[in-house]
Design brief:
Elements (H helix, E strand, L loop, with lengths): L7 E3 L6 E4 L5 E5 L2 H7 L4 E7 L3 E5 L3 E4 L9 E4 L6 E5 L5 E5 L13 E3 L23 H4 L2 H11 L4
Parallel strand pairs: 3-10
Antiparallel strand pairs: 1-2, 2-5, 3-4, 4-9, 6-7, 7-8, 8-9
Length: 159
């Protein structure tokens, strides 16, 4: 796994730079229609991490509220200049979903799971080394114990 000191990232124009203090708790490759529309691509790769583990080095991303099929809140934090999406907040304020492709080393983290594959584009082939789910999975069964502890420390027991 990539060491924390190598986890820098940013937008396309360089106005926003950040560094992850630790690796993400888990990495999802999401194939839902919302992610497809918002990225203009077949899927998005999100690293789930505590908001306080994102160190801002330069600039200040702006939240842009987006509609979702679920109706739940979804803010995408974008560079105010080039508008690149850096991470999302799905109404879980202390947790962010960092766009792994905005890391300087975009290949630093491969997906731990593929989610919402029911809306996966038919020409996308899923790798055999990561589980895939038509919708979502049970975190307690899939996330590593250390990641579950981090999540519980942040949100409290049973959340």
């Amino acid at each position: 796994m990539t060491e924390a000191r190598n986890l820098g990232g940013g937008c396309a124009c360089g106005a926003v730079r950040y560094r992850l203090k630790t690796p993400p708790m888990f990495v999802n490759c999401c194939h839902c229609r919302d992610c497809q529309r918002e990225t203009g691509s077949a899927f998005v790769i999100n690293g789930v991490i505590e908001a306080d583990r994102i160190e801002m080095l330069k600039g200040n991303p702006e939240p842009v509220s987006m509609p979702t099929d679920s109706g739940r809140p979804h803010d995408i934090y974008r560079c105010p200049d080039c508008r690149i999406a850096l991470w999302s907040d799905y109404g879980r304020r202390p947790i962010r979903f960092v766009r792994v492709s905005t890391l300087d080393e975009a290949a630093a983290f491969k997906p731990d799971a593929h989610i919402f594959t029911r809306s996966k584009l038919p020409w996308v082939r899923l790798p055999e080394d990561a589980p895939a789910f038509e919708v979502y999975y049970e975190m307690n069964k899939l996330w590593p114990a250390e990641s579950l502890k981090r999540r519980e420390a942040l949100l409290g027991p049973g959340k």
